[in-house]
Amino acid sequence: MVDRWQRHGIGAALLAALGAVAAENGLDDLRAELTTQTHALAELFGRVFPGTRTSWAGSLIRVSCPVRPADTPLCLGGTRPTAR
After folding, report:
1. Residue 81 domain-assigned (yes or no)
2. Does 57 fall in a domain?
3. Is the pLDDT of residue 10 over 60?
4. How far is it, in rounded angstroms, from Cα 80 to Cα 68?
5. If I label 72, which of 23, 63, 66, 84 is the partner at 20 to 30 A Cα–Cα?
6. Residues 52, 45: contact at Cβ < 8 Å?
7. Per-residue pLDDT tens for 15-52?
8. 14 located within any domain
9. b/e burial code for range 63-84 (CB count within 10 A of at least 16 → b)
10. Domain count, the chain
């Protein structure tokens, strides 16, 4: 994503949507391999998907993210909506 669009929540919204699609299709988790230059993206996975596990494999960061069931929406930041 180009710099001027970073830090606007777009990446978090896209990851949350990806997680919802994954859950709707019966997946338990998402996995990704990221370069070490994208460590901020690895942190974003952790904020969007609580319980994300990370590990290093040479020059890669591996992330494994549990996805929520489709009927439990994620808010940005990986929190569940609260009742008012």
Report:
1. no
2. yes
3. yes
4. 10
5. 63
6. yes
7. 999 999 998 898 999 999 999 888 888 999 999 999 99
8. yes
9. bbbbbbeeeeebeeebeeeeee
10. 1
pTM metric for this prediction:
0.70
Question: Using CB atoms within 10 A of its CB, is residue 18 exposed (0-12), middle (13-18) or buried (19+)?
Answer: middle
Question: Given this model, what pLDDT does residue 68 score?
Answer: 63
Is the residue at 16 inside a domain? yes
Dihedral Cα 55, 65, 45, 70, nearest 10 deg: 180
Range of the domain at 33: 3-66
- Exposed, middle or buried, 48 (CB in 10 Å: 0-12/13-18/19+)? buried
Residue type, 56: W
Reading the block at residue 60, the tokens are 């890669």
